[in-house]
Amino acid sequence: MTLSPGTRVRARLADPDHHTRVPGYVRGQTGEVVEAAGQWPLPDDRARGITPPRVETVYSVRFPAAGLWGSGTHWVVVDLWESYLEEAG
Amino acid sequence: MGAGHAEQPAAVRVRHLEERVLAAGLASDGEMDAVLARLYAHASPLNGARIVARAWSDPGYAARLLADGNAAAAELGFDTAHAGSGYRLKAVANTPGAHNMIVCTLCSCYPVSLLGPSPSWYKSLPYRSRAVREPRAVLAEFGLDLPPDTQIVVWDASAENRFLVLPARPAGTDGLAEKELAALVTRNGLIGTAAV
After folding, report:
1. pLDDT tens by residue, A47-84
2. Is B150 on the interface with A (CB under 8 A)?
3. Is residue B56 located within the same domain as residue B92?
């Protein structure tokens, strides 16, 4: 999966019982890819001692405040590993 | 996490963590000391200010900074991509219509070598929770009242991806040399909680 800037994506809603780096405030929320931000080991794997950890593309994704909080005009940009995302179409 | 955990003094908690790292064979005391020494020996907001002043003075450098923060920092002698504890440095530019601010909602990620040790408020729960929720109100409390039509972008940093705000060059600074420009830049300006 390669996500180009502008692609609409949804952060996964799952609430795993292990460490993850999907902030609660974006779970299930729809945003837009700003850019790819490099390839990094998946924190979920590193925290569980899985070696080698999966290495994934991290995407900077911007979410509109109105979607996150019901009000506001700002954007919040969050870095999300590829497996945290699904295309929103 | 037990109820007593958060009540322990930070130094005690840090030592517990260090002991777990040692016991797991992940690093020696000496290696941890070396990382901390490298992290703090030259860490200062003067470094970030130098980057900003160069970008204000040299449009070519500004373009390179926005395209690849690590490479642009390296041009001035700042190593942010070193193995083991490196990160991607992303510079975000303020413009007349857009203002950027940095937060780390998870903890306190931040480019320490370029901005110096982070201020206590940056690590506080109120800042970390409110910056993403109501940045305009937070900025007003810092004394920064932005025009209503300024687009605010809040960047939630991570260990792997850290940010530096490139403030807009203040009016009336055309004749200033790079060193004088650097003296105008504050740590809050580099975080985005001040105009410069």
Report:
1. 999 999 999 999 999 999 999 999 999 999 999 999 99
2. no
3. yes
Does B10 fall in a domain?
A: yes
**What distance in Å separates the CA atoms of residue B23 and residue B29, rounded to the nearest whole number?**
11
Residues B74 and B9 in one domain: no
Token representation of residue B122:
């940056």
Cβ neighbours for B195, distance < 8 A, ≥ 6 positions apart: B94, B144, B167, B168, B170, B189
pLDDT of residue B14: 87
> Which residues of A are less than 8 Å from B152 in CB distance?
73-75
* Structural domain containing residue B18: 5-40
Q: Is residue A68 part of a domain?
A: no
Residues A28-39: tens digit of each pLDDT: 999 999 999 999
Residues B125-138 have a mean pLDDT of 97
Cα B55-B41-B93 angle, rounded to 5 deg:
20
What 3-state DSSP class applies to A11? strand
Token pair 């109501």 is found at B134
Q: Which helix (H) or strand (E) holds B103?
A: strand B98-103
- Bridge partners of B103? B156
Number of domains composing chain B: 2
Which residue out of A75, A80, A82 would a mutagenesis test of the B interface target, given it has the greatest number of B Cβ atoms within 10 Å? A75
**B32 and B53 fall within a common domain:** no
Structure-block tokens of residue A16 = 């795993």
Residue A26 lies in a domain: no
Instruction: Tell me, yes or no, whether B32 and B56 share the same domain.
Output: no
